[in-house]
Every structure is written in C-alpha cells, then in structure tokens.
Write a structure and sequence with these properties.
Length: 240
C-alpha cells in the first residue's frame, strides 16, 4: 500500500534519494573524465585487437597461398623453383608455416636427388619444439625414410622407438620402417612380429596392412586374420 505524502517514511526515502543523487553527481564530477578516458582507451584497444586479428588472418591466407603455389610448382616438375620461392617462408616467424615450407623444400631436394639435404631439412622440422607434435612426427618419418640407405639400422630403430611403442597415426609407418631396419640387420623374427602388429591394427591404411601381411608371411609369421564363421540358416545342420 502506498504511503501517505506526509509520513515520516516518505520523508526519509526522499532524503535518502537526494543523498544518493548528490553522491552520484559528486562522483561524476570527480571521476567522470577518467571514466570517459578509460572507455575510449578500451575501445581503442578493442579496435587494435580486431585489426591485429584481421591482419593475422590475411597473413595466414597469404602464407597458405604461397605454400599451395609451391606445391603446384613441384607438381609441374620444377622443384628448384618451388624451394627458392619458399625460402622467406622457411625462415619466417610462424612455426607451422616455417615447418611446412621446410618440408616442401625437403621434398624438392629429394626430387632433385639430394637426399642428404632432404633428410637434413626434415630433421630440422623434427627437432623444432615450437612445431606441433604431429607435424614433427611426420617430418621424422620422412627423414628416416629418406636416409634409410645411409643410416645405421640401430639408429633408425632408436629414433622411431617412441612412435612404435604407442598407438597413434604414426605407428604403422614407423613400425614398417623399423621392421625393414630389423631385416637389414638380420633380425627377421622381430621384423615379422612388427609386420603382424601392423596387419592387426584396425586404423592402419589398407594398403599398408596388406603389404604387412605379405611381408609377415614371407618371414614365416601368420598375420592373416581368421575369418568369422558364417551364420547358418535356421534349421540347417552342420555337415558331419
């Protein structure tokens, strides 16, 4: 119920409202300019951040275009031109694009027959801790594959041990290279078991699994999965 105009409660509320209004006016008078400055500075900072974001996207788009063009150039049979075009990118500040550029340059070197330079560039990416681990693993696999004929089998096996020991997207390729290295040093039993593991890995590419089955069979290891028994029709009796 509304209070009568002349009641003490109404008077006290009006006094309280007046005090609050006076305090607000005093606060605005003392700090209003500072608040406006802070708001303006905040808006400028926000605008700067949005501009930086848009610049990053533009730079990323530009870098991606350069990388794509270089890949097309390699596909056209001009690896040297591709490697030269990516030289600034391979020395840039963006870890991912720097790594990708180096890997394209490594492929270009391999296409020109310079396997030593190719392996070195792949190794640079594999050792770069600022690069995503999946990219480093891919570079390590390419490095080991490129240097397979010149590297000691024991060294290759040691370098790939962590990829073979755990399941993951790099397991099958790492295990295949390791198995071939085991064969190179005469350890066919270990190689056969590795090929068997690859053949039994559901996530491994089918071509790699098929190749692993054949290699395991050559080494005397049965890596062919048993076929499940075909279901019998109702009433059908098994043949004696």
């Amino acid at each position: 119920m509304a209070l009568p105009p002349g009641s003490p409660d109404t008077f006290m509320r009006e006094v309280d409202d007046a005090v609050r209004a006076d305090r607000l006016s005093s606060f605005a008078a003392r700090y209003g300019r500072a608040i406006v400055v802070l708001v303006v500075v905040g808006l400028i900072a926000l605008a700067g951040w949005l501009y930086w974001q848009s610049r990053q996207e533009a730079i990323a788009g530009n870098l991606g275009t350069k990388l794509s063009t270089a890949l097309d150039t390699i596909g056209q049979g001009r690896p040297k031109a591709a490697a030269s075009a990516l030289a600034p990118l391979a020395k840039g500040d963006d870890p991912s694009y720097r790594a990708l550029a180096l890997m394209v340059q490594a492929n270009a070197a391999a296409a020109q027959g310079d396997l030593v330079l190719s392996a070195t560039r792949f190794g640079t990416v594999a050792a770069d801790t600022s690069v995503d681990q999946a990219l480093r693993d891919a570079a390590l696999l390419r490095q080991m594959a490129t240097a397979f004929d010149t590297i000691e089998p024991a060294t290759l096996i040691a370098r790939l041990r962590h990829l073979v020991a755990r399941p993951g997207p790099a397991f099958a390729s790492a295990a295949e290279l390791t198995a071939l290295a085991e064969m190179k040093r005469g350890n066919d039993a270990a190689a056969g078991q590795l090929f068997k593991r690859i053949a039994e890995t559901e996530t491994a590419p089918e071509t790699l699994k098929s190749r692993a089955q054949q290699m395991a069979g050559m080494l005397g290891v049965d890596a062919v999965a048993d076929e499940p028994p075909s279901p019998r029709a109702d009433g059908e009796r098994p043949q004696e």
